Amino acid sequence: MASNVDIVRTGYDSFCRGDIQTTLAMFSEDIEWHEPEWTYGPASGTFRGRQEVLRRIFAPIPDLNDAFALEPREFYGDGDTVIVTGVFHLTPRGTGTEVQVPFAHVWTVHGGRIDSLRAYNDVRELVSLHAAGDPPT
Description:
CATH topology: Nuclear Transport Factor 2, Chain: A
Strand content: 35-45%
Number of helices: 5
Helix content: 25-40%
Radius of gyration: 15 Å
Structural class: alpha+beta
Oligomer: single chain
Strand order of the largest sheet: 2-1-6-5-4-3
Shape: globular
Distance between the termini: 44 Å
Largest sheet: 6 strands, mixed
CATH class: Alpha Beta
CATH architecture: Roll
Order of helices and strands: HHEEHHEEEEH
Mean pLDDT: 89
């Protein structure tokens, strides 16, 4: 059986290659996803269920960004908890400016399914971009 770190790593791999359906299938039906507020990002708040994560988090990415890539760098596992650190590389739509947004994701995994995510994003560069007069579109 795959370790919880392997399960989460496989989810990132499928997301990064654009296989969103495989990523979603790794989530429990009632996944709880906590997304902080961030300029040029998806909706903030708590979202429940695969379809809500797809609709509110994944689907808006191309509408919000001219370019988007996710680079997970480090994976740490302890029991049901997996922590991933990395960087989002994105060009918010209409800005022409690429920024890097460091992140930490805290996942819980039970019985081979991902049950929850709590995301932490360092949006300093995005706030600076917005303050410079490039309004989000």
